[in-house]
Structures are given as structure tokens and as C-alpha cells.
UniProtKB/TrEMBL annotation:
Name of the featured protein: Caspase-7-like
InterPro entries linked to this entry: Pept_C14, Pept_C14_caspase, Pept_C14_p10, Pept_C14_p20, Pept_C14A
UniProt domain Caspase family p10: residue ranges: 379-469
Domain of life assignment: Eukaryota
Gene Ontology CC, one term: cytoplasm
Domain named Caspase family p20: residues: 238-368
Segment forming the signal sequence: none
Membership in a protein family: Belongs to the peptidase C14A family.
GO molecular function: cysteine-type endopeptidase activity
BP GO terms, sorted: apoptotic process; positive regulation of neuron apoptotic process; proteolysis
Pfam annotation, one family: Peptidase_C14
Amino acid sequence: MAVVSDAASLEVIMNPSETLLMAQVRFNSQAITILTELDTFEAISVAFLVLDIDYLTRQGYKHFQYMCDGRAKEALEQVVNAVRQSCGHLEEVLEALYILGRYDLLEDRLGLTVNQNLHKVFKRLSSVASDRKALYCVFAGMAQEQADQLIHKRLPGWYCPDMGRPLEETFVRNLNDGNYWQLVTELFEALLEEDRDTLASYLHPFIILKRTSRTPSLVSQTSQITEENYYPLPMGYPHGLCIIINIKTFMKPREMNDTTPLLERHGSDIDKERLAGTFKLFGFHVMHFDNPDFEKIQQYFRKLRMNPWVASVSCLAVCIMTHGDEQDQLILHDRSCIPITDIRKLCYCQALLNKPRLYFIQACRGEQTLRPILLQQDGCTVSHMESDCLISTATVKGYSAVRSETEGSWYITDLCHALQEYGHLLPIKNILQKTRQSLKSRVGSMNNTYVTQLSEDKDTLIKDVQLVRAELGYFLDGIMDLVQLELMEKLLQEMMEEALGELENSSELLTLSSNFAGMSVS
């Protein structure tokens, strides 16, 4: 049975907004004690996120110096007092802890259970300025050596006497009355010069670009897109509809002759969150559908086809993650099968006529493992009768698809990375070529055998599909989803390393290592 009602039933038991309000009251009396548990870089990030521009310009650098010199408590007291004086409450500081991913402090010290409902509440908050969140994403996305190189190589006009200084501190050191947006623009251009387009894209919504030879790719997506060669671009929000179908668990066999082992697909939740955050960057409204059986998936798409709202979107993307077989059938929660071609038919309706429909399938298409062979190439070409469709599958027919239980699947990971970096610059077919290039370079070990993977695309598109960056609010919503996912992955990695350390002298270590961090097929 589908579990899409879980979030709704939880809402009745606990009102996360009320819980957050109680946590704010508790935080108001314990703020300094809790904040002193942050390390120096985290404390600087919190101060950078919550202080307004005028105060940051006048006092920010002094506070950062205090934090770097071991006087963090004194600096944090002044920061908290400044926020109280300007706002009357500390909601910004609480939101900053959430942005930093310090869920341990929110749970252990403030009694906040960080779950999907609480994520929704925090995402609705707008206490911390959007441009400050974007700058934080840039600062957090660079290692110290990269930050030093950027400052001294690309920003010669910025004063920074020493190496190893936090990038927030250098930014604030160079702040003066009226030059905030100038610094943001200079940082944006420096990131482009270093080919850090992904980090630059965080700042892009805040930059008023002039047409220069140095930044042609980010000036205007519409300038070279014509009706003759491209499907029409979106005219408003949402740009498109993205449906993520995640089949993680499967019912037990009901028939004696059903002996197919369908293991739980650990790691698919990571794929789901990565896809959601990525498509939000391009203004897609994201809908989740977890563990549908055959009847539920039929009802779902029947209602969708009848919904007049579908006519407002310019593109449909359907992402399906499940087990599959060599007949190109996808296995649903109740162990029934549905062909990929039937999914395409279910999604078709009059409202989507002449609009691109994109399908991304993470599923095995057989039991064989694709062995890495030097210079092996695949030249398969397939066509379809129905137009305006693209089906991209994680692997070629007859072979399995690789999924890490701690990092998600290879295909979804590489697809999302390609979309994040090039989705606003290149048509979707080029994005899938980038994905295939990344997959082709992967080699892993599973069951004492080296394996690789190659995705396959089949399309009847009659024009190119070009995605467009979302407007600011929706874009940053996607950014925050991806930042949270990255923090979660780091936490899982630390837990695994700790577990490996404890098992270092045990016989289980050999088994654990041979599984390559829980690598499976899906």
C-alpha cells in the first residue's frame, strides 16, 4: 500500500509550528549557551546570516575577529543583542542553525524533532535574507585552499593580509557603506573565472548582468532560443511538473510460484531528495508518490490527466525508482509489473499535447553486470511512434543498475549533478550525454566483481528542450534542499567511518568492505 498519507496523519498528532514557537521561547533564554557549542566557522556563519547590512558593515568584522581570537562568547552575546534590538526575537538565529544543519542542537537542546514536517515549517520562514543564504552556500561550498586561491588570484582588489581566513571574514572586512552588492557581483564574476559555475549560480539571481564576452552563458537563456528549434519556454510558475515515484519496499509474495527476491531499496530516499532539490532549481512543482501499487498508480495518473492545472505547465518530468527486469517492466509495491511504455501512456493527456514529456528511470533492465572494458562503446538507436517523449534509463537493456545504500544510485546522482551544473546552459539531450560520460567513467566493486554502467536514452522529441532557472524564491528552495541532503550524506559518511573503526579488528570488516559501502542493484 502507498504511504503517501503518512505526512498528513502525522500533522494531526503534532503541530510543528507550535513546537517551533515553544522552541523559540526556550532558545530565547538559552541562546548564548547553545551558540557557544558552535565552532569558530559556524559561529561566523551564524553572525553573517543574521546581522543586517548596516550592522555587519559597522561591527561585523570586529565580531569575527573576536571569534577567531577565542572570544566567541563575547562576540555571540553582542550578535544576539543586536538581533533582539532590531527584531525583538531570535527567529533569525534559530533559522540560521537550521541552515547550518546543526540538527543536533535543535533536537537535543530545543526539543525539535527534525522531520519532514519541521523541514516544511523552516522552509516557510523568511527571517534570513535570501541573498545571505545564497552567499552562505558559496562560502560553505569552498574548501579553505580554494577560498584562498580565489581571493588572491581573482579578487586582487579585496584586502586580505593572511591565508587561511574565513571567506565571510574577508567579505565583511571589505564591506563599507554602499558597496555590498558590488562585492557580491565581484565574487560572482570571480567564481565564473574559476569555472565554478555551480557556486556562481547561487548568486546569479541577485546579479544584474551586462552582456560581456566573459559571461555569455549566463546572460540570457532566451536570446538564442527560437520556436523553430526549441519547445516554448515557460511563461510563469511553475515551469513544469516533476513527479517522483519512489518504490522502496515491496509486499511479500502471494503466490507459490512467485520466488523473485525484491529487497528493500536502501538509498532511494537520497535519490528522491536529490531529484526534488534539482528540479526545484528549474521552477518545477515537485510531487512525491511513494510505494504505489498497480491500482494506486492508475488512479493517480487518471486524476492527473483530468486536472485542468496541468495545462499551465510547459514540461512534464516523471522520475521512477524501483526494481526492473529484462522485459523493461517496472515492479510496483504490490509486486505487479507495468511496462515503461504504459507509464508513458498513463501520463499523456490533451493538456500536454505538443509539450515535452521526460522520463527518467532508475531500475535494472536485467541481471547481468556490465563489466568495464577499455574503449567499449554502445551504438544502439531506437525510435518511437509517439512524439514529444524522451525516456532515459539508468542502464542498457539486459544489465543491472548500481545503487549505493548510503549515497544513492549512480545514475540519479550523475543526472542531478549534470542538471545542476549545465541544465540552464545546455538542452536536455546534452545533459543526458554529460550524465552518460560521468557514468562511463565510474568503476565499482560489487560481489568481488568490477562493474560499470551506461545509461540509454530513447526519444521522439521533435525539438530541443531547454530548462530555465527558477525565480529567486523557488530557486533557493531547491538550493536549501540540496544543502540539507549534502549535510545528511556527510553525517552518514561519518557514521560509517566510525562503524568501520569499531570493526577494525573484527571478522565483519572483510564482509563490510567487500560490499563497497552497501552497493546494490536496483
